[in-house]
Amino acid sequence: MKIQIDPRLDAFLLDHVVAGAPLLPTVMQLDLAARVLPARCAHREAPATPAGIMLRDVVVGHPVRFDRPGPRELHLVSRRCAPGRAGPEAFSCELRSPGEPGVHLTAVAERITTPVPPARSPGAWASRLPCGPDLVYPPFFHGATFAVVGRFGRSPAGLTARLAPGLPPLRWAAADTVLRPRLLELLLQCCGLWELADSGRMMVPAAIERVHWHPGSFAVDPGAPAVARIGPRPGGGDGSRLFDGQVLGPSGSVLVTVAGYRATDLGLVPDLAHAARLRRCLDAIPAAEPAATLTAVAVAGEGAP
User: Fold this and answer.
1) Is the pLDDT at 173 greater than 80, yes or no?
2) Do 202 and 188 meet the contact criterion of CB atoms below 8 Å apart?
3) Which of 65, 90, 147, 251 is deepest in the core (most CB within 10 A)?
């Protein structure tokens, strides 16, 4: 599958600029990978149970940079592979630039119809998160389209962030998105805030074990309130960490579940002063969430912190 992307038309790229050049966000690369499902499964009948979409075994390679004016072409290569426990078909995907070595992103995409996790109300505490976007943008490099964090604060499992209101529409120039990318972006930026507060480092996505967009994520209004909650866990003997989390809709329905998100250092000089300011804000007010931590989610083998 050939895909053409042009910053003059796909204007969201101008809100994701690093070192003077637009970068294709990881969440939008995942949206490209998800195009495999409608393209390869168009002949299938619609499932009786509403289907979610899972992308698993995600590895982020070298970035898609727009160093030169004008469009660039990407190739999405897919092949059928062994399905997971919850889906009848799965497709391995690679996102490449023609004529360039290496891969931008690899993932396995599949539709799944497993039971949706039970709703859990975000609670009144979600409207009283103490920290604001002034602690996120800057140093985060996201413009208006991806300035998704409205408020954030500690929770017993890790951090909680609320989706900012009034965000500009997010779509490709030629089509709507397959997924709801900003729901995942909210969760990933929540992980980035944890890393920034802990070390002063700016981190970018490296890998995700599983990210599951539940059926309700496609039905919810893109401007509706949403809350992301994340928690870290040890990532191995190298001292790295992984994050698990959920994004909840306004009624407490689980919209997105993430297991095993890993980030890597962007390579910028650590902003220790800002990290200290961020920690002071987070430490000034105890965890806003009630004592119960995130409940386990037994969906396609997923877990939550």
Assistant:
1) yes
2) no
3) 90
